[in-house]
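Sample 1 of the test manifest.
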Amino acid sequence: MIAEHEVRNLLRTGGYIADESIATAVFLALRMEKPILIEGPPGVGKTGLAKTLSEVMDFPLVRLQCYEGIDEGKALYDWEYGKQLLYTQLLRTQLDSYLSESADLRAAVERLSAEESLFFSQNFLVQRPILRSFLSEKRSLLLIDEIDRSGDEFEALLLECLSDFQVSIPELGVIEARTRPLVILTSNGTRMISDALRRRCLFLYIGYPEFEREVAIVCARYPELCDTLAHQMVDFLRKVRELNLRKSPSISETLDWAQVLTILHATRLTPEVVANTVGTIAKHQADMKQVSELATRELRVA
Amino acid sequence: MERIITRFVKALRERGIRVSPGESIDAVHALALGGVEGRASVRALLRLTLVKNVNDIPAFEEVFDSFFSGREHFPPGLDQADFLGALIHIVEGEQLKSDLHKHHKEEGPTLLVDEEVTAEDLENLLGMEESDEESEGADIMVQLDGHRGKMEAPAPSDYYMKSPPTVAFHQGMNKSKVEPFTPEELADMQEVVGRMLVRIRKDVQRMKEEESRGRLHVIRTIQKNYRHGMVPFLLSLRRKRKEKPRLVVFCDVSYSVSHATRFMLLLLHTLQSRVMDVRSFVFNRELAEITDMLRNMPVNCLIETIDKGEIVNLDDNSDFGNVFRTFKEKHLESMRGKPAIIIMGDARNNYNEANEWALEEIREKAGYMLWLTPEERDTWQRGDCLMELYGTYCDRVEVVRNVDELSRVVEDLFLTILDLHDTRVWKRRPRKPEGEEPYDYRTYYTKGSGATPAFDPNVRRQW
């Protein structure tokens, strides 16, 4: 089994710069086989962590995007009614001959019900993401994305899956996970997740990164960007975050911006550069104005 | 190790962080796994396993720092300077008391004619008694903590603030700007609203279910399934009700009730989109509709705009009569359905015309009328307060003093609205015929206990 600092190095090879708590969380989740619940503002790399992990650990990624009204038919399993119907149609002749041997109707029904399990078997079961990841041969990574979009009922549905790694199907009984997947749940905090679910998870909060880490992230992704510019833009973005914006730029915006600046071959930040590229960091009209103003104020002097 | 974790968890619980036994077992288990080295890692590990809420993280950091700092004889979360201060307080208790007394005499309300002891004085006295008792140092500290802030200069009584001379002298001072919500306040309120929404969710669900039920609308179903060769794959039903419950809210934004107003605005903001159709107005002397602004603006900005006096002039005195007349003239026609009306204000009309006839006309168009006032009942007859007069036109008058009470009242109202979202029920409601003797509002207010007026309980339960 790997240790905590190895986790961090592993993530770094995947281009994900983790801090202490992220590395510890992944390490614990791997060792304790507990799900991680990640909360934080949009764009700080919650889903990115899961993707990188699946890449570097070589776990196949099974993703379940939550939305309002998601239910077990979409998340756990479903019966393939069409296939069931088709089979009964095709097997009609066999069934006829099979049932014709019985003396009366009662006997025929008994005979048929003895074979009932044939029609409620794994054959006709559609595996939805959670069951699929439980039954996969290789250890997989189950990403339950934006859990806060789903309803309370769905949360309750997850409780059994996440604490015991099993799925109860009334017709088949309890199906245990073949391999316990690494489970990552993400939430933007638009709705409070119930305490029952929190209790079953390791709780990880990812906020905006510290200066050093953000620079490291930019440099890791866009090594061609010159070092001073990376420092300058991260410094500027930190000031932007202090403004009272409707949508503060997070890491994903930082990376977008870095990409744009690389394409433009910019060497240093000027108010003009910011004005031209403001659309990548500010996502509202009012925000754009504020950011441009900040740029003229802060960067003119330099 | 288990013992250390147990003690640490205890310290966390003392700070108000909820840690379940299962979580502390997790923590011990996680530590036993090994592979974690260094203070930062252990901190991350404990935080991951023990803390399950973002808001608890700062408290955790604090407890962690003080608990594992070696200075364990100090209880966690206590600053040394604070501790010293508290000790000084204990030693100099006597002096403190006399100081306080002097202080009080200087700053007491000079306009009060009688030298009677006010409620605040009694409370202060009570506080001094308590700290005098023979108790252990820590106990006294706790007591002092409890009374810090309360022992400051006595706040002038409500009556003093409202009495005409004070109002006249303080005309300029009352305008001091109330800061917009702090993020914590906002979060708190969001939480109250959130909890409320969870509780009423079931009812909303039921409402929605009822909406999607109904008899088959044959013609529309056939039209809808034309492309399927008239095989009715898609059904169209005669819905029982297509609209969300309607609500019209008036908020007094003058200084005296602005706190309650703020909460109300936030509440409306949240409810607006989700479950009901709200039209909101703010008023002081003039009336202004803010429905669209509520929809398009963050609450904080809106409150700032209101505080700047850009929507209604805050320097005027509130004039309820004028407001009701304006509403009657400008908006009553455009009020659709039979909305429930909530009025928030202290009904202090500053000796302007009452115009209760306008209120009566508004009442006729409304399904329900609720008045929320921050003032206690015994001040309703004093000064320029017209609560008694306006109260007669309302279905219910509630005294709300804080956020909790307000949220309870609104939830109550909301449930009744949901129950009766079907306007047909309103028609079936046993209404009193016009000619009947007007009920005596004095007994209405004195009978029963506020929330459930004594006459005809059946009608009241419905509305």
